[in-house]
Amino acid sequence: MLLRSLTIAGAGRFATPHTLSGLAPGLNVLAAPNGAGKSTFFEALRLAMFAAYKTSNKDLLGRLPTRNASLPLRIEVDFEVDGFAWRLEKQFLSGQFSRLHQGGRLVADGTEADARLWSLLGADRAERRHFDVLWLEQGNSADRLKLPDNALPTFNRAVELALGSVVDVSHARLLAGEIEAELEKSVTSRGAKKGSLLASLSEAVAAHEASLAEIDRRLASAADLRAELAGHRATLDLYARDGRAARLEAAAAAASQALSAALGRQQERLALDAAVAAARKAEGRAADDKAAASAGLDRLLQALANQAALDKVLRQARDEMHSVTASRPDRAGLDAMIQQQQSLRQQLALANLLARRSEAMARLPDLEQAAHQHASLVQSLAAAEAALAGLAAITPDDLAGLTAAEHELLEARAAARAGRARITVMRLGAGDVQVNGQPLADGGLDQSIDGAMAIAVPGLVSIHVEPPLSPGDLEGRLENAESRLRHALQDAGVASVADARTAVDARRFYEREVARLQVDLKAQAESGPDGKPAALRLEKARAGLGVFDAQLDQLDSGWRAVTPADPVSLQSALDDTQAAIVAATGEQEAHASRLHLASNAVVHASAAAEAAAGVVTSLRAERDEAGWQANQASAAKALDEAAAALALALQAVSDFERRHAGSPSLTELELAADRTAQASSNHHADVRQRSDACIRLESLLAGAGLDGLDEQRASLVDLLELDIRQKAREQARIDALTLLRDRLETAIQSEQARLTAPLNAAIAPYLGLVFPDATITFNEDFAPDQLVRPGSGRTAQAEDHTLLSMGTREQISLLARFALADVLDGMGQAWPVILDDALGFADDERLQAMFNALTLAARNRQVLVMTCHESAFASLGGNRVKIAPAG
Amino acid sequence: MIRFIHTADWQIGKPFTSLGEVAPQLRAARLAAIDALAAHAHTHGIGHVLVAGDMFDGVNLARPTILAPLERMRSASSVTWWLLPGNHDPHAAGGLWERLVKDGLPPNVRACLSPEPVEMAPGAWLLPAPLTGRHTARDTTDWMDGAVTPDGAIRIGFAHGSIKDFGQSQESPNVIDPGRVKSAGLDWLALGDWHGMMMIGQRAGYPGTPEPDAFREARTGTALDVTIAGAGAVPAVSTIVTGTHDWVELAVTLSGAASVDDLAALVARQTGRNSVVRVKLDGVLAPADWSGLDRALDLIAARVCHLDVRRDAIGLALDDAALANLRFDGLLGQVAEGLAADAVAGNPTARDALIELCRRTGAL
């Protein structure tokens, strides 16, 4: 099909007929600004080709801005099909008609014309819009490609022509969808879906198993209880059969009897042992008496010997005392050395005082000179302070105030001398100039500024002038300055500002002088050892000489006539005397110590001798030597008698042991009695415990709630088996459905790939121009689905159409239309591609690539590109066409 | 002379839950068997019934379950019922039997709980061998060899377990020496445990359970009527039929539509409305035959008491012609071909998937 021209009237801005003519095979470009009517022509062509002339299709008519019924919409299309020229005339809204001409001859009219047109386009009424997808309207270029209604069968036929055969996948897709929906009710990706039969059965199986385990646990527990009960009963039965209780009781009685007999023998033996012990005790007492008598005699003899030895010691102590008393040293020499020591000390004190007085006398002249300098400084300081006090009390701040007042007065006088400002206003051209509201005089204005002035050019400017000060103000300022200076001089107590400056300078001089003298006085005081003024130090030195004189008078009234002795030689003589006194005193003390020791020895020896005599007297008072000897003899006799009694008692014990040799020991008999009694008691306790345990176990079993457990268990086993089988059946059903769904989907995908293969082949050349190395997948409706581009490494990057940029979506949308057009070519007709302001989102590089793709597409068909970007599309080339008034 | 009924393995309390709605009916039938035995005894003037173990299905049963058979025995007051603990209801300490004795058995019911001779009738002595556990390693009839009874007494052994000749090893539990009859001088050894009726020589036998309760058991639903004229006389034994249900398990190999058509008739010939039926199917069927199989099984289920069908082993027969007959169009034909190939190769999931495809597309 080849479009040649299109004429419209009654739509958009075209009230009168306008024509788009000059359309040629290949690429045609209509570049015109916004509002030129491109889209009106685009939609009008669609309306003419696809709408029935009596259409009430609001979708079609609604796209065209018509004048409603005031003007009918008239469209004329000249086109060629298979080399034959056709002309279509259609009118809508009012006076509708449809006329189809061939070679200038009307060949069909009205409905027949529409039917004949669509037949020419290779479709019936239902599928007439099949190639409308190749005409892309403004604003939809980036939308996902969508075939028009009823166009899919046409494209399927085109694909079938390319492939030879096409398999219908719709039924399989429907079935796969049904199965998927059914599976979603039963399973999820993680297993059985909650609430599904499979999940319910799984839960039931788990619940049955849990219940079964609980019942088994309870049955096992009961079995344990029964086993324990059976054990106790068997033991009790055994006890009853073998007469164990009677045997144990008899053994205990026999052991008890043997123990009683043994206890009797033990009493007898204890009596014998007591007799032996008594005899031994008597023998011991006799031996003690004999020993006591010997000890008493020994103590008396020892006391007598002791008394004799102590008497001898007393005599020796008294001899020593007499010897020490006779050797006492001489005392007169020591007293003479003490007297000489006192004389030497007095001479040394006098010599020391005289030496210190001489030193004080030597320092006196220096002190008198310093006192004189101090008095001079004090006098200068008093004179400076008096001069300072006599100066006027003007501070530097006072002087600054006076200077400022004087400056202000000088300025006021200068201002008064300067006079007043002047103003000159001249007219330079035509116009209305006003001064203080009055028209400017012809000669202009030149005067001093005595007060405020208003100068205006109405409509343009207004100027307000204020003079600096009035003459009255200048005079007032001068008076004020003079008054302020006068008052300031009075306050400062000076006649002029110069006097004030002199007073301030003199005050600064004397203040510095007073400070300097005070520093000198302080320095002189600090030069002395005590920091006191020199006069005070002189007075103190003179007082010290008086003290020395008084002390010397006290030592020796005639000291002034004495020649001072050498203190060093006096000190040496004093040290020698001191050493002699120490030696003599030591000798006296040593003698006194020896005398004291000798005296003490006499006293102690005398006391000891007296005590020993007392002991002897005391012992003899108890018993004398003859008495002690008699006691010794009677005690020896008693000891012999006690030994004989002990021998008799031991013989009786020996006889007892011989009689009962080989009998069990009492310990053995006690152990046997305890053991057999314990065994009998244990047995009775065991019987009691087992009987109690039987009662307890019977009670536990009765209360264990076992009734019906076996039936419950058997039922649970049956139910579990049933549920497991049912679950297996449900799982098998789901597995079968899953397999069926998977096989269907695999087959659908495989067929889908086969169906879109022609489209993929057709788009490849265009895609290579714009997206090198990329591929596009198409869905079952021939719409682009994914753009697959090379990724990093060997992996390809598949991007869903909806996630691509606007520009990329738009470009793919156009390329897909080129490919669809190529596929449709297989049906014998090359349909034109018309693009209304597409490629609005392409960057410069992509735009050039798309121009190449457009050029390639135009090699096989007519392509009409409408654009408002004249300059951007200048490089597209092609046959340029225009819209112009018809005729 | 003494005449008695020898029965065993009532297993009262068995729930039959897996059989669903028919379970109460089967439980009731087991109790009804007691009435049938009592009626036989009454009709023939028989004074004793020996229940040789497993009267109950367990030892921890609900009280009404325990009392139900006892009350039926109490009603048959002209008969003395001799009960023996078996492996399902052993006499354990603190267990079922102890409790029954403590609570008081009906006056015409005797529980034989210890291995000692009991005179059941003048001149006839019962030598019971009660089981005290589910599994007993020793032969509990050992003691019978030395059991003392009056001279000229009829000696009747009363035991529960398997005869060694059944193939059990020596280590199998509850095994009874078949030579016990001779070694203990028994006139009759009344055995229980084996649910099918079986004679062991002339002087011993299993009566079978009085009401069938499982598949693969032969000659069930019976008891024995035993008459012993005197010590050493050969007992006269006849079979009493008491069962009201039959448990039938059929294995059928299918091969085509005709075999499906024959299935209902085959089952009908071997079952009745009181039949508990299990049908195990194998063989191969074409997809078109599956609907017919469903209809046939529905028909069988309507005719019997309970039907359990195992059909997992049925394979799919599907050649190219059969596949073409399924009339799949478009892509579904490709999918069906792939599934058919896998199904014929033995993949049951592929088989089910193909059947599902056929059903959903109306191809069958």
Brief rundown of the structure:
The complex is a heterodimer of chains A (887) and B (364). By secondary structure, chain A is α+β, with helices and mostly antiparallel strands.
Annotate the secondary structure layout:
The complex is a heterodimer of chains A (887) and B (364).
Chain A: E1 2-9, E2 18-20, E3 27-31, H1 38-50, H2 58-62, E4 73-81, E5 84-92, E6 97-102, E7 105-109, H3 110-120, E8 135-136, H4 152-163, H5 170-186, E9 187-188, E10 191-192, H6 197-242, H7 244-326, H8 332-390, H9 396-418, E11 422-425, E12 434-435, E13 438-439, E14 445-448, E15 453-457, E16 461-465, H10 471-492, H11 497-527, H12 534-555, H13 567-622, H14 625-659, H15 666-702, H16 709-755, H17 757-770, E17 775-778, E18 784-790, E19 796-800, H18 806-825, E20 833-836, H19 844-857, E21 863-867, E22 879-880, E23 883-885
Helix pairs in contact in A: 4-18, 5-16, 6-15, 6-16, 7-13, 7-14, 7-15, 8-11, 8-12, 8-13, 9-10, 9-11, 17-18, 17-19
Chain B: E1 2-7, H1 23-44, E2 48-51, H2 63-75, E3 80-83, H3 96-103, E4 109-111, E5 118-121, E6 124-129, E7 154-160, E8 162-163, E9 175-176, H4 180-183, E10 188-192, E11 198-199, E12 204-206, E13 222-228, E14 236-241, E15 246-255, H5 257-270, E16 275-285, H6 287-303, E17 306-316, H7 320-325, H8 330-344, H9 348-361
Parallel strand pairs in B: 1-2, 2-3, 3-4, 6-7, 7-10, 8-9, 10-12, 15-16, 16-17
Antiparallel strand pairs in B: 1-13, 5-6, 11-12, 13-14
What report would you give on this structure?
The complex is a heterodimer of chains A (887) and B (364). Helix content of chain A is 64%, strand content 12%. With 887 residues, chain A is an alpha+beta fold. Chain A has a 7-stranded antiparallel sheet. In chain A, strand 1 and strand 2 form a beta hairpin. In chain A, helix 7 crosses helix 13. In chain B, helix 3 (96-103) links the parallel strand 3 (80-83) and strand 4. Chain B is an alpha/beta fold and 364 residues long. In chain B, helix 1 packs parallel to helix 2 and helix 5 packs parallel to helix 6 (287-303). Chain B has 9 helices and 17 strands. The chains are: A alpha+beta (887), B alpha/beta (364). The A-B interface holds A 167-172, 175, 178-179, 219, 222-223, 225-227, 229-230, 233, 697-698, 701-702, 706-711, 713-715, 718-719, 721-722, 732-733, 735-737, 739-740, 743-744, 747-748, 751 and B 13-19, 57-63, 65, 92-95, 99, 132, 329-332, 334-335, 338-339, 348-350, 352-357, 360-361.
